[in-house]
Amino acid sequence: MEEALKALSQKIEEYKANIQTEEATKTAFVLPFIALLGYDVFNPDEVQPEFTADIGTKKGEKVDYALLQDGNPILIIECKYWEENLEAHNSQLYRYFAVTQSRFALLTNGVKYLFFSDLENDNKMDARPFLEVDLEHLKDSDIQELAKFHKSSFDVNTIIDAAGNMKYTKSLRKLLEDEFSNPSEEFTRFLAKQVYTGKVTSKLVEQFSNFIKKAISQHINEIINDRLKKALKKETDEQKEQSEPDNQNDSKIITTEEEIEGFNIVKAIVCKVIDSERVFARDTQSYFGVLLDNTNRKPICRLHFNSKNKYIGLFDNEKTENRIQINRPSDIYNFSEHLIETTKYYDAKS
Q1: What are phi and psi of 132, to 5 degrees?
Q2: Model confidence over 57-108: pLDDT tens digits?
Q3: Angstrom distance (rounded) from CA 71 to CA 41
């Protein structure tokens, strides 16, 4: 699905200038999008064009597409020409939503995809989407959320739970961004009362507004600087690590049969989720490393078999190594789940 989304994104970039109508937008961009969600666009039991959405006495109203599950609509889709501003068309989809059984509605111009639900009032489409995806600026998080709509994994409750999380987190982020850049009087008074014991006058609010902006700016800069320092340190450590084999005397590096056996076991485990050709070994004097894509930035694990006691080094998402003692290479199978999750984490960030 990730590859298909990126391919569609590239297609949009290449061909949108030649797309002149709404119908062409549907054919070139929207139908391929529906297909990559796992639905057969030529099967009316899965994808129904011109789905009837009669509104009261107004008969014959049609929504462009409806994705069906067991004969019931699970996602209604209204399409517009790729250059149109989608915000001007919410009301039309709002009317359709109220007369269908679907919990989800999609408004799209083939480039941008706005997903709605009824989180605030049952059977009444929310005014704002819980998910906005721009295929020309596709993010990893977008791919993860779109995967929930795939035919093979579609579950109403799972998506509804995630939708609430996304919608309100997004709204709070926007609120904080606005307050951080231009603190409102209410926000300023609230914070001023936390640190000032006197009367909060209008003049004091004006002064504290500047204090708050300065404090927020300093705090954010400190966070950024701290992360940059950690990233630079990690990169420096990795560069030193990568240069180790070149600085070492190759004759001192002995790859043992147990290390080879351990490598093959790790490879067999992680090949359930990635191609075997992406798994590499790198032996050093101190450990035997197993890497994804032959880079020290993606360590799957390390095998410490050069001493009396054997250890496997497992990594968390911060690439911090945790050594665990094992008795024999076959014990590596006990850590299959962790090895697979580590590999999937690196692969998702590739």
Answers
A1: -125, 125
A2: 456 678 889 999 888 899 999 999 998 888 776 777 787 787 788 889 999 9
A3: 15
Write the pLDDT tens digit of every residue in 127-137.
888 899 999 88
Same domain for 162 and 18: yes
Q: Which of residues 126, 151, 171 is at a domain's end?
A: 171
For 93, the domain range is: 2-171
| Dihedral sign, Cα of residue 170, residue 171, residue 173, residue 177 | positive
- 75 sits in which H/E element: strand 72-79
Rg (CA), the chain: 27
Decide if 75 contacts 131 (C-beta within 8 A): no
Of the CA atoms within 13 Å of residue 36, those in its CB half-sphere come to 16
Question: Which CATH number belongs to the domain containing residue 19 in this structure?
Answer: 3.90.1570.30
pTM to 2 decimals? 0.55
User: Using CA atoms, how far apart are residues 301 and 339, in angstroms rounded to an integer?
Assistant: 7
What residues have CB less than 8 Å from 97, skipping those under 6 apart? Answer: 76, 105, 116, 118, 123, 124, 125
Tokens (6 digits) for 24: 């062409």
- Give the residue from 111, 140, 171 where a domain finishes: 171
